[in-house]
Amino acid sequence: MPKFIVEAVDDGVVTLRAPGTNYCNSFVFHGDPSSLTVGARVRGTIHAPAWKVDRVELGGNYVEPLFGRPRRMQGTILSADNVRNELTVQVGYEATVKLPASLNANAFKPGERIGWDNIEMPTFQPAAVPAVAH
After folding, report:
1. What is the pTM of this model?
2. Residue 68: which of 122, 25, 118, 16 has the closest Cα?
3. Residue 108: left (phi > 0), alpha (psi -120 to 50), or beta?
């Protein structure tokens, strides 16, 4: 599960920096904003809703633009979830892409490369924090 550094939390949007990269992207956050502290490290998952997906052979793993709302993402498929019709893809960090209804996850294989355009702003879901025993 990817680790990020919280850059900002504002009005349902969290901006996260991916350590070791130039990425500082913004995501919809459906949680308690007080659970995220600016400057803190946080683990979680990115969920990106695609409207268009392309198989690609050239180019690296990337998120466009480097700063702000991710509009285009490209990378290597790590796994496929046929039940949810989703692919987990390494794009500079891991992102789970929800495929459009016209595509099936079972048509894609780990190791293949894809690029996609997000139909709306991707979301960030923080990992559950384990309860501390007293």
Report:
1. 0.90
2. 25
3. beta
Helix (H, G, I), strand (E, B) or coil at 107: helix
Q: Are 69 and 46 in contact (CB under 8 A)?
A: no
Torsion of CA 52, 124, 58, 103, to 10 degrees: -30
Contact 41, 57 (CB under 8 A): no
Instruction: Decide the pairing of beta strands 94-98 and 41-55.
Output: parallel
Distances (CA, A) of 17 to 42, 65, 114: 10, 13, 23
pLDDT in tens, 79-128: 999 999 999 999 999 999 999 999 999 999 999 999 999 999 999 999 87
Could you report the per-residue pLDDT of 33-73, keeping only the tens digit for each?
888 999 999 999 999 999 999 999 988 999 999 999 999 99
